[in-house]
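Example 4.3 (complexes with small molecules)
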Amino acid sequence: MLHLGSLAYSWATLSLCYLPSSLGAATLPFLKLKGPPTLPPDASPSLNPSLASFSIETAFFEEFLGNKSFPNQLSLNLLQNLKDRTGVPAEIRIGGITADSTGWDPTQDVALFNFIDSSGTLHNTTLGPAFWQSVGLLPEGTKITLTLNLESLSYEGALSMAKAAVNGLALGQLSAFELGNEPDQYPISFTPQTYVDTWEPWAHNISLALGLRKPTFRVAATAIDPLWPYNTPGASSQLDCVSALAAGANKDHVVGSCSEHTYQYSVCDPERTAVAILPNLVNHTRLAEYLDLWQPRIISVRQQLGEDSFNIGEYNSVSCSGKDGVSNTFGQALWLLDTILYASSINVTKLYMHQGGPLALQSSTQLNHGGLSFYDMWYPVQSQNGPIQVMPSYASYLFIAETLGQSKTLRISNIFPGRQANGSSITTALGDSSAGQLVAYGFWDSAQPSSHSFPTKLALLNMQIFNQTNANPRPTTKFDISAFRRASSRTITLKRLQAPGADVTAGNLTTWAGQSFASGLAVGKMAEEKQTSSIVVVQASEAVLVFL
Ligand SMILES: *[C@@H]1O[C@H](CO)[C@@H](O)[C@H](O)[C@H]1NC(C)=O
Ligand SMILES: *[C@@H]1O[C@H](CO)[C@@H](O)[C@H](O)[C@H]1NC(C)=O
Ligand SMILES: *[C@@H]1O[C@H](CO)[C@@H](O)[C@H](O)[C@H]1NC(C)=O
Ligand SMILES: *[C@@H]1O[C@H](CO)[C@@H](O)[C@H](O)[C@H]1NC(C)=O
Ligand SMILES: *[C@@H]1O[C@H](CO)[C@@H](O)[C@H](O)[C@H]1NC(C)=O
Ligand SMILES: *[C@@H]1O[C@H](CO)[C@@H](O)[C@H](O)[C@H]1NC(C)=O
Ligand SMILES: *[C@@H]1O[C@H](CO)[C@@H](O)[C@H](O)[C@H]1NC(C)=O
Ligand SMILES: *[C@@H]1O[C@H](CO)[C@@H](O)[C@H](O)[C@H]1NC(C)=O
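Answer. The structure with 2-acetamido-2-deoxy-beta-D-glucopyranose bound is encoded below.
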């Protein structure tokens, strides 16, 4: 249960002076963050060092990683940059819709074979022994979650893949098995009970057959958003982590964690395509209201499976492979940063950002066909959708990685706009006068002597859209952080996430602390600003990490 009521509204006060803006939206030029600076009662437990992880569509794994003879150096460099900052690699979930048409062939020469017919439709995928050598290219210590094929309803098939993985992966590399991708979307219409009737004996038998000593299965991997409000007819019979656990998924103690998928927007049909626009994406109110739908499930799952158990095991901004001009922009980078920080502030353990390409027949009305997805963080190979490149959103994972740093004891809380009594974000309608444009998070490090008195870092986000085509001057907001500082004489350090505008799609115009990572490696001189002033100026469409 949450008991945050009395604190919720007192954490931030707003300047009530608004300037008319040439951009149409109201600008909030000054925001004084209000204390106390002490560890908030709603703070998360220690953040997982692999908080910002990846899901790679099974059929596209070779496009991303290459193989032993032809490793994809761009992907490897980008993943290594993240590990260098936290000491722990991002986790990789190998899964997605194609996992449910993937099989194992111990005699296959190539690492991964996609059966694609003359119309370009992918029918199925087969992995062979060389696949594990591709996985072996990942930075040392990378943990793997592998989705086994449930939809084909071949227990022997799922067992053979699980066995091959246990034998083929490095010792200790397997983090979890999933059994089925998005089973709530299968044509056979699983109920929570019929899902568990199949899922549970398989998970139990595979665990026994392979001698898995600790609970290794990740339950659910479901796709459909929680119905709202929670007493809507049908809400409690949705297939999800909570209903699967209630139906007995963990009766033999095989469930180590759970996963649900989030895609806030979609281009699977024209109605939703119309809503998948940049101004909707780059809005804290909207993304927090969306993630808040999961709060009751997160609370329930953590009570049943432990603190570190609720994962967003596959996510991105726009389902059916993203939208050009939206999910490949710097606006996506701001959305991604706020999504990870907000999700972790409501106790999601890890988020696995999905990478892959459009598949035929995801829906009969989908926008995208062929190539790589417009929401991918980088293009490891050339495709019809563009050359090899790194998208602006990669820089957000660097921001997260440096926020975590080498600490394993960092706790997060959303200090602006803060929480309502029931734990949900304060929305525009309920008093966030920045209309979802300004966001602030604090980080408290339990390993520091001052752990309960002051945060060690702040993340300040200004989501107001400024496009590279907009006329200057670029609007700014001054955040007053004095309430969170130990001493006003101490020097603070700032690192910025920047681009010429939210509409920028070029990785080479996007910088983290002054450096571009468009080639996979840092280019340019690292820019750290030092100041003693408590006023931190953040431009429209910019985010700043403050080291206190
Ligand atoms: C997150 O979990 C911690 C510890 O388990 C708890 O104290 C806190 O209230 C939770 N926060 C939210 C927003 O649910
Ligand atoms: C490795 O990749 C190359 C280039 O795509 C391909 O020709 C080769 O068959 C692959 N090798 C294996 C073992 O999959
Ligand atoms: C893959 O699909 C093709 C075409 O439908 C089929 O002939 C083949 O048997 C399938 N392979 C596997 C391993 O299921
Ligand atoms: C699981 O194992 C039990 C005991 O070996 C067996 O009776 C049962 O048929 C197996 N279930 C499946 C789905 O293979
Ligand atoms: C919290 O209450 C607000 C209304 O005050 C509602 O909009 C929101 O959905 C609630 N959140 C949860 C998780 O119940
Ligand atoms: C952000 O979204 C909320 C909820 O839809 C809306 O009320 C608010 O006006 C939006 N903010 C901007 C700047 O458009
Ligand atoms: C910025 O550009 C996007 C399209 O890329 C557009 O939807 C949005 O309205 C523009 N915003 C401003 C403030 O110009
Ligand atoms: C950035 O990359 C684009 C191609 O994606 C190229 O046309 C442009 O010259 C590059 N700009 C810089 C500053 O390197």
